[in-house]
Amino acid sequence: MKVLTAFVLALAVLTGTPAIAQDKGSVNTNMEILIQKVKADKKLLVAANLELTDDEGKNFWPLYDAYQKELEKQNQQLGKTIMEYADAYNKGPISDDTAKKLMKQVFSVENAQVKTKHEYAEKIGKVLSAAKTTRYIQIETKIRAALMFELAKQIPLVE
Predict the structure, then answer these.
(1) Which of 77, 141, 148, 149 gets the most CB atoms within 10 Å of its CB?
(2) In Å, what is the CA distance from 99 to each residue of 7, 38, 83, 106?
(3) Nearest one of 42, 67, 31 to 146, comparing CA atoms
(4) Which residues of 16-48 are buried (b: 16+ CB within 10 A; e: fewer)?
C-alpha cells in the first residue's frame, strides 16, 4: 500500500475519530485514547497561552467547545476526501474527473473552515479582548498548520 502509516495517524488525529476501521478493537481503542489526549493537550495549550480570567473563561470555553465541534465536522469531511484520494491513488493513475472532484471537495472544506474561523473569531471577540482573540486564532492556525504539514508530507502527489 502506497499510503504510509504516519499519514493514517495524522488523518485520525485531524478527523478526531478513527479514520480507518481495523480488525482489532484494541487498535481503535488506542487510537481513540490518542485522539482524546491530543484534544486535552490542545486545550491545555490554549489555556496556558490565553491566561484567561475566571470571567473570561466562563464565556470563552463554551465557544471553544462549539468551535471544536464545528472543526471536527469539517475535519471529518476532509478525512473522507483524503481517504477517497488514497483509494484512488492506490488503484493507479488518477483520472482527471476524479482529480477535479477531489479538488472541489478540498476547496469546499477549506472555504468552510475559513468561514467558521471568521464566525468564531467574531463571537470570541465579544467575550475577549482583540489581542486575546487574535492570540487564540493564531494558536488554532498554528496547530492546524502543523497537522496539515504532517498530512502534506505523507500524501503523495497526483500522478
Answers:
(1) 77
(2) 19, 32, 13, 11
(3) 42
(4) bbbbeeeeeeeebeebeeebeebeeeeeeebee
Dist CA 110 CA 75 (whole Å): 10
Q: Summarize pLDDT for 14-48 with one digit per residue, the tens.
A: 555 444 444 456 556 766 776 777 788 899 999 99
- Please name the residue that has the C-alpha cell 499519514: 7
* Distance, CA of 19 to CA of 16 (rounded, Å): 8
Average pLDDT over residues 57-70: 97
DSSP letters spanning 13-58 = HHHSS--S--S-HHHHHHHHHHHHHHHHHHHHHHHHHH---HHHHH
- Round to whole Å and give the CA distance between 155 and 157: 7
- Cell match 491513488: residue? 89
* Residue of 77, 44, 80, 73 lying closest to 61 (CA atoms): 44
3-state secondary structure of 17: coil
pTM above 0.85, yes or no: no
pLDDT on residue 113: 96
Contact 83, 154 (CB under 8 A): no
